[in-house]
Amino acid sequence: MAKEPDFNGEEMHLPNKAAKLSGPSQKVQNLGRVLLLLIVIAACALVYYFYFYKQNPVAIEPTNLRPSLETNKEPETPTAIAEIQAFSTLSTSNELGPIEADLLGTDLTNLETEIPAIDSELRQSGN
Question: What string of pLDDT tens digits covers the 127 residues of the chain?
């Protein structure tokens, strides 16, 4: 059997409180302090955000995004009005000849290029 240590008559010594940590444990302690500081800063930022921005919402004034016909100075406006008037001058006949003449006279070449603009106007009017 192994011989057991004998501590009889010896005085017990406690570690010195002034002993400094060294090595990896000091790095872990510094990392913990940095993480704690980051958590405190994040908490302060959240409190600031919710207190000042959520409590006092900024009022946004609605604006009319579509100009009226009188204030619209875009170059395509006269062209668009002329096209609308041309579409409304179709024949009211139910005979095949005038209907075919109306269909052949209708210019739909630019229709595909105008579809995105029409879609965006419809989306804006729906909001």
Answer: 578 878 788 887 777 766 555 556 777 778 889 999 999 999 999 988 887 776 666 677 777 677 676 776 666 666 777 777 766 676 777 888 888 887 787 777 777 788 888 888 888 877 6
With helix as H, strand as E and coil as C, how does the chain read?
CCCCCCCCCCCCCCCCCCCCCCCHHHHHHHHHHHHHHHHHHHHHHHHHHHHHCCCCCCCCCCCCCCCCCCCCCCCHHHHHHHHHHHHHCCCCCCCHHHHHHHHHHCCCCCHHHHHHHHHHHHHHHHC
Q: Is residue 67 part of a domain?
A: no
pTM reported for the whole predicted model: 0.28
Range of the domain at 100: 76-126
Residue 70 maps to a domain: no
What total number of domains does the chain contain? 2
